[in-house]
Amino acid sequence: MSNFSTPPFDPRFPNQNQTRNCYQNFLDFHRCTKIMKRRGKDSSPCDYYRKVYHSLCPLSWVQRWTDQIREGTFPGKI
């Protein structure tokens, strides 16, 4: 898993358009890190989601969503 360049197939997103897959993995990463920090545990298991969304999502989307999280205006539920 440490050297994969393309995310593995996810049966939740069977179509060619991977926009929802990108967004869902972004949410999953931030939810995972939030839960792990709350429990006082290492968040390294969440790195899988980060690798997947970095592989699928355009950088401009990730930057915009990260800025929105910092500003408290992100529309997703984390």
Produce the secondary structure layout.
Blueprint: H1 19-39, H2 47-56, H3 59-71
Function: Component of the cytochrome c oxidase, the last enzyme in the mitochondrial electron transport chain which drives oxidative phosphorylation.
Protein name: Cytochrome c oxidase subunit
InterPro entries: COX6B-like (IPR048280), CX6/COA6-like_sf (IPR036549), Cyt_c_oxidase_su6B (IPR003213)
Give a brief rundown of this model.
It is found in: Mitochondrion inner membrane. The chain has 78 residues and is mainly alpha-helical.
Number of DSSP strand runs: 0
Proportion of β residues? under 5%
Q: What is the CATH topology classification name of the domain at 18-71? A: Arc Repressor Mutant, subunit A
Count of DSSP-assigned helices: 3
Overall average residue pLDDT:
91
- Just give the CATH class of the domain at 18-71: Mainly Alpha
Give the N-to-C terminal Cα separation.
25 Å
Would you identify the CATH H-level superfamily of the domain at 18-71?
Answer: Cytochrome c oxidase, subunit VIb
Tags for this model:
mainly alpha; Arc Repressor Mutant, subunit A; Cytochrome c oxidase subunit; 78 residues
What does this molecule look like?
With 78 residues, the chain is an all-alpha fold. The protein has a domain at 18-71: Cytochrome c oxidase, subunit VIb (Arc Repressor Mutant, subunit A, Orthogonal Bundle). 56% of the residues lie in helices and 0% in strands. It has three helices and no strands. Helix 1 (19-39) packs antiparallel against helix 2 (47-56). The protein is globular. The two termini are 25 Å apart. InterPro entries: COX6B-like (IPR048280), CX6/COA6-like_sf (IPR036549), Cyt_c_oxidase_su6B (IPR003213). It is found in: Mitochondrion inner membrane. Component of the cytochrome c oxidase, the last enzyme in the mitochondrial electron transport chain which drives oxidative phosphorylation.
